[in-house]
Amino acid sequence: MFTVVLPGVHPPELEPFALFMFCGILPWTWFSSSLLESSNVLIAGGNLIRKVLFPAEVLPIVTVFAGMVHFCLGLPILAAFLIYYQVPLVPSDLAWFPLIVLIQLVLTLGLALLLSALSVHFRDIRDLLANLLTLWFFATPIIYALSQAPPSVRRYLDLNPFTHLAVSYQEVLFRRGAFADWPRLLAVGGGALAVLAFGYFIFDRLRDTLAEEV
Fold it and tell me: Is the separation of the CB atoms in 122 and 211 below 8 Å?
């Protein structure tokens, strides 16, 4: 598969390739680092959780927002490269950017709440998550374009919610043309809300046992 999606010569529409890749790696770094840190944040903050008046969900939420701050600090660098390579930005497409960030924030918060609570009871999750995120990275069109994947593989990539987040960032910031992936982006947004509701539900159900387990 990698010989197909990662050929020696990149298609012209992916040039400059470093900029194309940066458009996907920047949000992915926020996503993956937030999940990894959230899986250990309650255990590391055990002294705070044992305080009766301290809301435990603050810890994974702060972790996600801290990752978002680093993401925002990387945006000026991305903007500088966009200017350097003279990539034209379409204002109507760029207007989607805040919504893409918001959907990623909601999805990340939901998964962070879920993983942080479950990791307290199942410590192996922290070790498995690193391997899962590596697989998830290669299953997301960040270092290759979704159009390069064979049709039989693309069906499975479409099931990956971060596929459509990455493609949305690429289309809004890098590609020249109308933003065409917005229906899938909105579908991911609906799914992200469901993940947030489920993550908070599980977190709330396990809240009373967290102090004992850490």
Answer: no
Mean pLDDT over the full length of the chain: 87
Residue 174 lies in a domain: yes
Q: Is residue 3 part of a domain?
A: no
Question: Alpha-carbon torsion 141, 145, 149, 155, what sign?
Answer: positive
Which tokens is 49 given?
A: 């959780």
Boundaries of domain holding 182: 13-213
pTM above 0.85, yes or no: yes
Q: What is the tally of structural domains in the chain?
A: 1
Classify 29 as helix, strand or coil.
Answer: helix
Residue 84: inside a domain: yes
Please write the tens of the pLDDT for every residue from 69-109: 999 999 999 999 988 988 887 788 788 999 999 999 999 99
Q: Are 144 and 5 in contact (CB under 8 A)?
A: yes
Q: Token digits for 172?
A: 């809004």
Would you state the structure tokens that stand for residue 178, as one six-digit string? 């109308």
Tokens representing 69 are 């701050």
80 within a domain of the structure (yes/no):
yes
Distance of CA 176 to the CA centre of its chain: 23
